[in-house]
Design brief:
The protein is of the alpha/beta class. It has 13 helices and ten strands. Strands 1, 2, 3, 4, 5, 6, 7, 8, 9 and 10 form a ten-stranded mixed sheet that branches. The protein is globular and about 60 Å long.
């Protein structure tokens, strides 16, 4: 395959991932494909042995692994590692695998690229996944694709919960992501803004196979920071929620209200969290959220009140409704 163009760039972030980064990189460099791919791995000034492991893979697989080593932590400076990785990506497609996750299907890239090549209207594909603990033991499953593999409409993906699929399972076209308006995310860092933007370029496809493993509660991970934030309700945490809500409102304006119905659930999930953190239900009916609040049905307004004042009861109601839907 020497001399062939690179079809896929895998972007991998790492920070103090010494116990996991080797497993992640091994699962990437051993992918079986008929095309060339590369791994652009960004070490954000780790203080453990992460950089040493990355160097060993760069020496072993110089034609695949392209490392970036920071001497000053970029995240603490408010700089996303993707700002460094994305400009270096040479592939037609982009895949993502954070340094504490790993792939468990050695044909993942081949399957996804084959599908995307054959379906130019597909802008984004993903798969079911496993959830694993710090010892790589399976503790659960993430199943956005129920039943057989299938196509998803843009509206289905935009309406999906934020924790819908494992980021490590996604593949998309670099040219589509290149048009992403920088101001759309309002400073929010995350994969949901890009996911929703890509859904303005085409549909999505979900593989029922479990191709990747998402590691839960890694020290310093987003999931750990989020749980800590929920407990502390610090100003920084509330600001993060507000940025998420701002993205949904910006996206609503960007798409001229075309997906407003689909956006409402996720928008008001964030607004409910903001209201709880501030201990003020009036937040939901105050600018800038008030015009969206007024557009809701009475049923949705009732659900919002219930989520705020009776969260445990509402969880029971939602579960009961889901059970009834499954039976029906």
């Amino acid at each position: 395959m020497d001399g062939e163009k690179i079809r896929v760039s895998i972007l991998t972030t790492a920070y103090n991932h010494e116990p996991f980064i080797g497993q992640a990189l091994e699962s990437l460099v051993t992918q079986k494909t008929t095309f060339r791919f590369e791994v652009v791995v960004h070490d954000d000034a780790s203080t453990d042995g992460t950089a040493k492991v990355i160097r060993s893979y760069a020496e072993r697989c110089p034609e695949i692994v392209r490392p970036i080593f920071q001497t000053v932590n970029q995240y603490s400076q408010g700089i996303s590692p993707y700002d460094h990785m994305t400009p270096l990506a040479r592939g037609e497609y982009i895949a993502i695998c954070e340094g504490d996750d790993f792939w468990c299907d050695e044909h993942k890239l081949q399957k996804q690229v084959d599908y995307m090549d054959a379906h130019p209207k597909c802008a984004y594909c993903f798969s079911n996944s496993y959830r694993v603990n710090l010892r790589s033991e399976i503790i659960g499953k993430q199943t956005p694709v129920k039943g057989e593999s299938r196509a998803f409409s843009s509206r289905e993906i935009i309406a999906a919960p934020e924790i819908f699929l494992a980021t490590a399972s996604v593949l998309f076209r670099r040219r589509d992501a290149a048009g992403y308006p920088p101001n759309l995310a309002t400073g929010h860092e995350g994969d949901i803004p890009l996911r929703d933007y890509l859904m303005t370029k085409g549909n999505a496809y979900g593989f029922s196979e479990r191709m990747v493993c998402y590691r839960c509660m890694t020290p310093g991970s987003y999931s750990e920071r989020y749980l800590e934030g929920m407990k502390s309700c610090s100003p920084e945490f509330v600001r993060g929620l507000e940025l998420y809500a701002a993205f949904y409102m910006n996206f609503d304006e960007y798409t001229e209200g075309a997906y407003r119905r689909e956006l409402m659930t996720n928008l008001f999930r964030q607004v409910t969290k903001i209201a709880r953190a501030k201990r003020q239900f009036s937040v939901m009916k105050s600018p800038p959220y008030d015009r969206y609040y007024r557009s809701l049905s009475l049923r949705k307004k009732f659900a919002l009140h219930g989520d705020f004042y009776f969260p445990k009861l509402m969880k029971y109601v939602y579960r009961a409704n889901n059970r009834l839907k499954k039976r029906g």
